[in-house]
Prior knowledge:
By secondary structure, this protein is mostly helical. The protein has one domain (2-169). The protein has two helices and no strands. The protein has helices spanning 2-88, 93-169. Helix 1 (2-88) packs antiparallel against helix 2. The chain is rod-shaped. The chain starts with a helix and ends with a helix. The relative contact order is 0.13. The model has no long low-confidence stretch (mean pLDDT 90).
Amino acid sequence: METEQREKQELNQxxxxxxxxxxxxxxxxxxxxxxxxxxxxxxxxxxxxxxxxQQTNIINLxxxxxxxxxxxxxxxxxxxxxxxxxxxxxxxxxxxxxxxxQLNQDKVNLQQQITNLTTxxxxxxxxxxxxxxxxxxxxxxxxxxxxxLERLLTNREEELAEIEREVSHG
Length: 170
């Protein structure tokens, strides 16, 4: 009888040791996931800073676009003035035509710059959207993993408590 009780007690101790090892293992897993989550949060912070920088760049590019558009309007007005002046003054026609040609080239160059800046802005917006989707997916995955680990730990702790109750009532 005493040997049987000792064997039962030894089995309970072995089982409790195993449960404690499992508890330690799962706690380490949660800690590792917490570290991973912190790393991802730092990544999110860095990406947020990059996004803010890109948004600032977009604002600056938009302002540049606005200034370029104003320059284009000013140049277009200047071309109109020069064309009117050409009609009234044939003596300076060649000089004025050269000026108009240069202003037209400036207009084309500015329009090309606007097109290029718009393309860059569109690409930046696309990249930003992709980054936001990636961050959302990472956060969802980490949240699911953490929930599963917390459930496992809770189940193991409940099993350990049940065993401790059985041993103490033994």
